[in-house]
């Protein structure tokens, strides 16, 4: 009978193994594992930060992040794909950032 | 404060020397010695310049308004440009060894990189700022293309396209501010925005803010431009990357401080900048984890630590700004050290510092020591400089009631350590059955550069009051209360 710790670890290891072919104990593998954990933890922290605007909003975002993390995991490889230096991809995100930057402060304070 | 003529030379002198280098580009010895001598001369000019203003047109103030292009030179400016000048000297020595052929034009580009950075740091004028950003973009293109690889050409082309968006956006922002306030001087614009009625102007001013922040994102390589900025660092020659990362840090601080002065007291502006900085800090360091070549790891860590600087600037209190400025200076020092160490590895084994190299510690133990110092400093390990500034950033976040931000800073610090040592183990420590052949040597000038940067990492870590005495007055002047 596996302990809970082993089960979660095994689950994570299998997720990463699915998208990274090669030695399971390589430096690259450890990089992806740490990256996966970092990203999940960061998304939760970012969701909690929404309490600055409104606590109920933070709770809703937190739940949405939890559901998304379960659905999209492993997120490290998708994250890497979304962060390619593809020009169209960067421009797409840049335009979205511009829209958010000009509307969110206006909505909150204008 | 009086008119300071030497301050203008910090920008004008490198431009003049760049013209001379272009004229004599075929004369290798002339180019080399002129470049190194001018780098030393710039350091002396920075040290000799008095605090105050420089007014280009000679009209300081007319009917309460500043008409001319204006440079401001304070203790922070002296300190930041001193560090930049030091890095230019180290870059000049490294470039004189590494670059073969007729390097005059390349040296000219490196000097113009310094000039554009100094221009952005010193200026108190919106037009001058825009010109500095545009010139810096073109210079980056020249410096990276000089590396000659297909990757360098691709990275440059993408970067130039982004310039078309961010640079033009900054111009739109300046036009809006000029239209609303009627002045181009930043101090005058700050005064106008704080005293005039903005009724009906808010949507327009928020659009100006958004374009300004996009320019900030672009110069710093923050999310979402971080993959392209990281390409710029990893495809340029390592000594050039050392100078380019210093340029990015100082320009992001300059633009960040201007955003704080112009828009910092408006609702939700600093909060949105904070979110972008947090995303950059984490995305950069996670992408660093996924690299194997040390240069690629460093490229993403530079981007990530730009996010740390952004966090301090976004919080915007006097203490947080001090922390951000200190972090920026420390970043310049330890990342400069690590990029120059990459240059040393390439000179030694004629290969990229990537996995498969192995056991470098037995061939160059002192080089390994410098790399360890730089890596420990970047990871925020006491008693080195990175520890002091990251601790200040954590305290700044906690003092305004943002423990989540403090946790993210800790994440970045720990993950930087993992990313760096994952790569360093492969290159320096991992035992190899077949040893890599030593094909070249590391010049003494490069060893001296690494030594001085290592000493700075230790001194600023042990005596943080020394750099902070230059930084704190500027932070106190710009600092605001956290709105929540």
UniProtKB/TrEMBL annotation, chain A:
Domain of life: Archaea
Transmembrane domains' residue ranges: 31-50, 57-77, 89-108
Keywords, comma-separated and alphabetical: Membrane, Transmembrane, Transmembrane helix
Protein name in the entry: Uncharacterized protein
Organism: Thermoproteota archaeon
TrEMBL record, chain B:
Main location class: membrane
Membrane association type: Multi-pass membrane protein
InterPro entries referenced in this protein's UniProt entry, alphabetically: CPA3_Na-H_Antiporter_D (IPR050586), ND/Mrp_TM (IPR001750)
GO cellular component: plasma membrane
The NADH:quinone oxidoreductase/Mrp antiporter transmembrane domain, residue ranges: 124-414
Assigned keywords, A-Z: Cell membrane, Membrane, Transmembrane, Transmembrane helix
Claim: Mitochondrion is one of the keywords in the record: no
Name of a matching Pfam family: Proton_antipo_M
Subcellular location(s) of the protein: Cell membrane
Regions crossing the membrane: 6-26, 33-56, 76-97, 104-122, 128-147, 159-180, 200-219, 240-260, 272-290, 297-326, 332-349, 361-381, 401-425, 446-464
Protein name: NADH:quinone oxidoreductase/Mrp antiporter transmembrane domain-containing protein
Naturally occurring in which organism (per UniProt): Thermoproteota archaeon
């Amino acid at each position: 009978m596996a302990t809970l710790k082993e089960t979660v670890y095994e689950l994570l290891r299998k997720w990463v193994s699915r998208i990274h072919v090669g030695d399971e104990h390589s430096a690259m593998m450890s990089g992806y594992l740490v990256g996966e954990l970092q990203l999940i933890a960061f998304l939760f922290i970012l969701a909690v930060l929404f309490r600055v605007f409104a606590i109920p909003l933070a709770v809703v975002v937190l739940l949405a992040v939890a559901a998304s993390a379960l659905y999209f995991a492993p997120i490290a490889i998708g994250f890497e794909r979304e962060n390619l230096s593809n020009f169209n991809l960067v421009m797409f995100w840049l335009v979205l950032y511009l829209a958010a930057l000009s509307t969110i402060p206006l909505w909150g304070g204008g | 404060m009086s008119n300071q003529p030497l301050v203008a030379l910090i920008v004008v002198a490198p431009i003049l020397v760049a013209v001379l280098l272009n004229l004599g580009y075929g004369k290798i010895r002339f180019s080399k010695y002129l470049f190194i001598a001018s780098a030393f001369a710039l350091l002396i000019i920075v040290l000799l310049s008095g605090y105050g203003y420089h007014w280009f047109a000679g009209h300081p103030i007319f009917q309460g308004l500043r008409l001319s292009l204006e440079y401001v030179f304070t203790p922070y400016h002296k300190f930041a440009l001193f560090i930049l000048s030091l890095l230019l000297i180290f870059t000049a020595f490294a470039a004189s060894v590494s670059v073969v052929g007729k390097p005059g034009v390349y040296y000219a580009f490196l000097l113009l990189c310094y000039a554009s950075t100094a221009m952005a740091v010193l200026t108190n004028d919106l037009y001058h700022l825009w010109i500095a950003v545009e010139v810096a973009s073109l210079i980056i293109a020249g410096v990276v293309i000089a590396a000659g690889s297909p990757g360098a050409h691709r990275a440059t082309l993408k970067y130039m396209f982004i310039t078309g968006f961010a640079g033009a956006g900054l111009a739109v922002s300046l036009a809006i501010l000029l239209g609303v306030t009627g002045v181009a001087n930043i101090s005058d614009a700050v005064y106008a925005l704080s005293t005039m009625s903005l009724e009906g102007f808010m949507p327009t001013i928020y659009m100006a803010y958004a374009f300004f922040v996009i320019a900030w994102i672009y110069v710093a390589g923050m999310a979402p431009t971080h993959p392209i900025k990281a390409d710029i660092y990893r495809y340029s020659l390592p000594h050039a990357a050392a100078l380019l990362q210093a340029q990015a840090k100082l320009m992001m601080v300059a633009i960040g401080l201007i955003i704080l002065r112009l828009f910092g007291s408006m609702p939700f502006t600093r909060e949105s900048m904070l979110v972008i900085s947090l995303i950059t800090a984490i995305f950069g360091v996670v992408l660093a984890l996924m690299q194997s070549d040390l240069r690629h790891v460093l490229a993403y860590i530079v981007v990530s630590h730009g996010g740390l600087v952004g966090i301090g600037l976004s919080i915007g209190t006097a203490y947080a700004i001090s922390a951000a400025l200190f972090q920026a200076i420390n970043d310049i020092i330890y990342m400069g050290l690590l990029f120059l160490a990459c240059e040393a590895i390439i000179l030694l084994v004629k290969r990229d510092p990537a996995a498969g190299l192995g056991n470098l510690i037995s061939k160059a133990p002192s080089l390994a020591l410098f790399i360890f110092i730089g890596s420990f400093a970047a990871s925020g390990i006491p008693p080195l400089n990175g520890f002091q500034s990251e601790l200040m950033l954590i305290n700044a976040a906690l003092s305004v009631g943002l423990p989540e931000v403090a946790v993210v800073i800790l994440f970045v610090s720990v993950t930087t350590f993992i990313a760096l040592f994952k790569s360093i183990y492969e290159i320096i420590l991992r035992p190899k059955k077949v040893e890599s052949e030593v094909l070249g040597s590391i010049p003494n000038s490069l060893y001296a550069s690494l030594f001085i940067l290592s000493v700075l990492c230790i001194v600023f870590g042990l005596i943080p009051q020394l750099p902070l005495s230059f930084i704190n007055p500027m932070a106190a002047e710009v600092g605001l209360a956290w709105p929540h």
